[in-house]
Description:
Two copies of one chain form a homodimer.
Chain A: E1 6-10, H1 19-31, E2 36-41, H2 43-51, H3 54-58, E3 60-64, H4 75-81, H5 86-95, E4 101-104, H6 108-119, E5 129-135, E6 140-144, H7 154-171, E7 178-182, H8 193-204, E8 210-215, E9 227-229, H9 232-257, H10 261-281, E10 289-292, E11 297-300, H11 307-322, H12 325-341, H13 343-350
Parallel strand pairs in A: 1-2, 1-4, 2-3, 4-11, 6-9, 7-8, 7-9
Antiparallel strand pairs in A: 5-6, 5-10, 10-11
Amino acid sequence: MLDSLTIALDAMGGDQAPDIVIEGASLTNIRHPDTEFRIYGDEAVIRPLLDKHAALSAVSTIVHTDNAISADMKPSQALRSGRASSMGMAITAVKEGEAAAAVSAGNTGALLALSKFILRMMPGIDRPALVALMPTRDGETAMLDLGANVECSDENLVQFAVMGAAYVRLVQGLSRPKVGLLNIGSEELKGHESIRLAADRLREADLSYEFVGFVEGDDIGFGKADVVVADGFTGNIALKTVEGTARLILELFQRAFRNSLLSKLGYLLARRALRTLRDHLDPNTHNGGMMLGLNGLVIKSHGGASAAGYASAIDVAIELAKGNLQERIAADLAALGAGENEPAAEEAASA
Amino acid sequence: MLDSLTIALDAMGGDQAPDIVIEGASLTNIRHPDTEFRIYGDEAVIRPLLDKHAALSAVSTIVHTDNAISADMKPSQALRSGRASSMGMAITAVKEGEAAAAVSAGNTGALLALSKFILRMMPGIDRPALVALMPTRDGETAMLDLGANVECSDENLVQFAVMGAAYVRLVQGLSRPKVGLLNIGSEELKGHESIRLAADRLREADLSYEFVGFVEGDDIGFGKADVVVADGFTGNIALKTVEGTARLILELFQRAFRNSLLSKLGYLLARRALRTLRDHLDPNTHNGGMMLGLNGLVIKSHGGASAAGYASAIDVAIELAKGNLQERIAADLAALGAGENEPAAEEAASA
């Protein structure tokens, strides 16, 4: 449909918009010189920033709008008045086929509400799910749902597993990702019934991933699964708990290093190694969460992302668009449906 | 009832039992020389260990049993055959009034099952809850339920809040603890209905704690609440996620320090400060979790606890027994019940 890939950017979303957005796009432009951009926002502000990057300018079109979604706007308000905003127009570009994906670092609640409203659900998916990459010992793991749905049925969890597997196949380049369900471990204290039922279905299904069963909270960081599936309440609690614990320990480390002259000196000597670690734990390097299950790709960048972080969100958008995420999910859903609901019918037909 | 406090010890539970149990008791004995011990287990093994500590021997009675609960015994099996075990007998001593509290580092599932079976629930509490202390930036916070109940009603959560507040008042010495409900934060994505209903009740109740509302996963480590209340599924996921993230980051730090000669040298210089930090994050220094809501005190020590860790579990048992935990919970429940259920009746009576 599109000769070269076009990505829609919400230039006005994020703590340091539009500067970081344009800086980020210029970094992506070096890696993906053929990718074109439709940049939505205030042209008077964007144009001078874009003019600094000749190569990026050559593949970019600014689409002006005065309307922007503020950081504190409620989702309901965004739905009423945000269709003509830079965010709303970037999403609409995906809907209209003018862009293969949209990227925004703006207000998360508004982005989710507008994306759902404008793009609608893809066929076969009942509920959307928020997914993001989290740092692990030797790489990253994708976790979903991170808060789009408080209550989830076993059917929802199965669909999340299928979507999450398709996502990491493209973003992580894994041919056969390991998928697990977040649960509590004690034998006597089994988890919610929906999780056990979802496990039964995922165990039986013959899909292009490996179902590794239940994953506990302390497995998340150690790569037991490439995709960790949970309801949105539990997933959000786990995500925030990982973030909070990481922040706490880094703070305590800094405090420990200030403890004495010797430890200060130790810090100076080890600081390059510690910076590498901090980078690994930095959400910026794992940027590119999204809402899976919609009729189109909308990638969420962290609001406080650096240019490099924003660029990695655009990179994720490009990888997912090139890899036809939606088609992969649809194919796996079809396989799941065929394997699950109609084996008897097939046997009858072949008999 | 008891002239001096007596604590029942399951000498055979834990990875290094009975050595660590006796070592731990000898440490507590220095701080609490008047506390007496009933030590349950294999006398032939315990006696020589106890003989090394004259002061502890003088306040201890060994109650022999050949029967012990193994680490891999299922709770159902423990219920069938474990009443005469060192663990079962220590719990029974609490039931019979021979001890003010029992401490065990043994099989958690068996301990919970036997405690529930032998002691039964205290009046006014519908479900027991597992509580433990977790390290925070400037101290510790108590979290419950950590896995005793997968599904919880708003009434259960309110009772957990009352029990948790009573627990930290004694263990932490807080006169007016801050109590919060673990929830997800987004305005549009409110948590489960049970949490919102529990919040309404806790907000209205006039108890001896401060209700601080909802606490998110990333608030746990920063002391927003002294007591974090959740259903057992969510609490267990959060607990394990904290543990796993802490383990991951410490591992990554060690790896970072091995990266180069300079960083190795840095580690050597900073190692005292880092050891202080590791101690703060060590579960051993926060030992003394328990199942709240039973007709008696049973304290769970980590199975891998050091002698110091085991001693701190005994210390918790002593503090809770001296502070009359059960009576405090009962009083708060009565106040809650009076305030909640019968204001109209009271008004009618006074009219």
